[in-house]
Amino acid sequence: MSEPVLGFSARSDVQDVLAHWRRWMESEKAVSPHTLSAYTADVAEFLRFLTEFHGGTPPSLNDLGDLKAADFRAWMSRLAMDGLVGASRARKLAAVRNLFRWLDRSGCLHNPAVATLATPKVKRPAPRPLTEIDADRLLEEAERDREEPWIGKRDRALFTLLYGCGLRISEALGLARKDAPLTDTLRVTGKGRKDRMIPVLPAVTEAVRAYIESCPFTLAPDGPLFVGTRGGRLNASVAQHQMQKLRALMGMPDSATPHALRHSFATHLLADGGDLRAIQDLLGHASLSTTQRYTDVENEQLMNVYRNAHPRARKG
């Protein structure tokens, strides 16, 4: 037994296939480091459960092939008893399913039992966008009260890009200097290394150009567009911290995060008559159902307007 992959003792044949599975996810599926880490931890937790379930003996590859649906259900029940919400249980099940599908395709083992389990119901919270007024105020405030003026311009450029183009924070921080949105379109590589073209508003171009001109570092064409105080690629945690300071200053809720600017982009487009499928393409959503969550936000906002403004609604 060894423990290089899982961090605890497991049989060598299991460790070996897990190493191959991780390499496959990283190279062929192009999952993010966060997803790779989370899936590995979820599988490790599942194997720990099996070890405990079978009297302290770590399962072999053959044992995994012999698992019954009842074994998987016992694990899911344990997670529920431990207090994990549906979303967490669903992700852990997805990780284990991913592993078993890969084992099947690779010819290592065939176990259809895991596919018979129902995915725990997940109630995804509705996106919480900023209002148009708050979004404008935040972009203006991002540039103020900085000891280093260029940092204020950087933050405004980054947040304007998130709001004006609907980018994920990872997509924006992954841009190279040569890919700076200084024309009317921007090519972005999103999840799964899928490219999409996004129109660029003049306000985005102006903010990015102002940042580049004020940046004290030489931005190499193949180097990062957004840099930190030492000239290296800007870390997402720094951008999140900057947003945290801004929302505290402006009295905004904790939901006002960099990702909320992406939510705001979609919600405001929808409110102004944007086509749902076009918004799906702009956001890079693989499924239209993901984009449709924004219609719930729009409907909720309309109902709030009705309740607050209609005479009969006020009278009850």
From TrEMBL:
<dbReference type="Pfam" id="PF00589">
    <property type="entry name" value="Phage_integrase"/>
</dbReference>
<feature type="active site">
    <location>
        <position position="262"/>
    </location>
</feature>
<feature type="active site" description="O-(3'-phospho-DNA)-tyrosine intermediate">
    <location>
        <position position="294"/>
    </location>
</feature>
<dbReference type="InterPro" id="IPR002104">
    <property type="entry name" value="Integrase_catalytic"/>
</dbReference>
<feature type="domain" description="Core-binding (CB)">
    <location>
        <begin position="12"/>
        <end position="104"/>
    </location>
</feature>
<feature type="active site">
    <location>
        <position position="168"/>
    </location>
</feature>
<dbReference type="InterPro" id="IPR011010">
    <property type="entry name" value="DNA_brk_join_enz"/>
</dbReference>
<dbReference type="InterPro" id="IPR023009">
    <property type="entry name" value="Tyrosine_recombinase_XerC/XerD"/>
</dbReference>
<feature type="active site">
    <location>
        <position position="191"/>
    </location>
</feature>
<dbReference type="InterPro" id="IPR044068">
    <property type="entry name" value="CB"/>
</dbReference>
<dbReference type="InterPro" id="IPR050090">
    <property type="entry name" value="Tyrosine_recombinase_XerCD"/>
</dbReference>
<feature type="active site">
    <location>
        <position position="285"/>
    </location>
</feature>
<dbReference type="Pfam" id="PF02899">
    <property type="entry name" value="Phage_int_SAM_1"/>
</dbReference>
<keyword id="KW-0159">Chromosome partition</keyword>
<dbReference type="GO" id="GO:0009037">
    <property type="term" value="F:tyrosine-based site-specific recombinase activity"/>
</dbReference>
<keyword id="KW-0132">Cell division</keyword>
<keyword id="KW-0238">DNA-binding</keyword>
<dbReference type="GO" id="GO:0051301">
    <property type="term" value="P:cell division"/>
</dbReference>
<dbReference type="InterPro" id="IPR013762">
    <property type="entry name" value="Integrase-like_cat_sf"/>
</dbReference>
<dbReference type="InterPro" id="IPR004107">
    <property type="entry name" value="Integrase_SAM-like_N"/>
</dbReference>
<comment type="subunit">
    <text>Forms a cyclic heterotetrameric complex composed of two molecules of XerC and two molecules of XerD.</text>
</comment>
<keyword id="KW-0229">DNA integration</keyword>
<keyword id="KW-0131">Cell cycle</keyword>
<comment type="function">
    <text>Site-specific tyrosine recombinase, which acts by catalyzing the cutting and rejoining of the recombining DNA molecules. The XerC-XerD complex is essential to convert dimers of the bacterial chromosome into monomers to permit their segregation at cell division. It also contributes to the segregational stability of plasmids.</text>
</comment>
<feature type="domain" description="Tyr recombinase">
    <location>
        <begin position="125"/>
        <end position="307"/>
    </location>
</feature>
<comment type="similarity">
    <text>Belongs to the 'phage' integrase family. XerC subfamily.</text>
</comment>
<dbReference type="GO" id="GO:0007059">
    <property type="term" value="P:chromosome segregation"/>
</dbReference>
<keyword id="KW-0233">DNA recombination</keyword>
<dbReference type="InterPro" id="IPR010998">
    <property type="entry name" value="Integrase_recombinase_N"/>
</dbReference>
<protein>
    <recommendedName>
        <fullName>Tyrosine recombinase XerC</fullName>
    </recommendedName>
</protein>
<keyword id="KW-0963">Cytoplasm</keyword>
<dbReference type="GO" id="GO:0006313">
    <property type="term" value="P:DNA transposition"/>
</dbReference>
<dbReference type="GO" id="GO:0005737">
    <property type="term" value="C:cytoplasm"/>
</dbReference>
<dbReference type="GO" id="GO:0003677">
    <property type="term" value="F:DNA binding"/>
</dbReference>
<feature type="active site">
    <location>
        <position position="259"/>
    </location>
</feature>
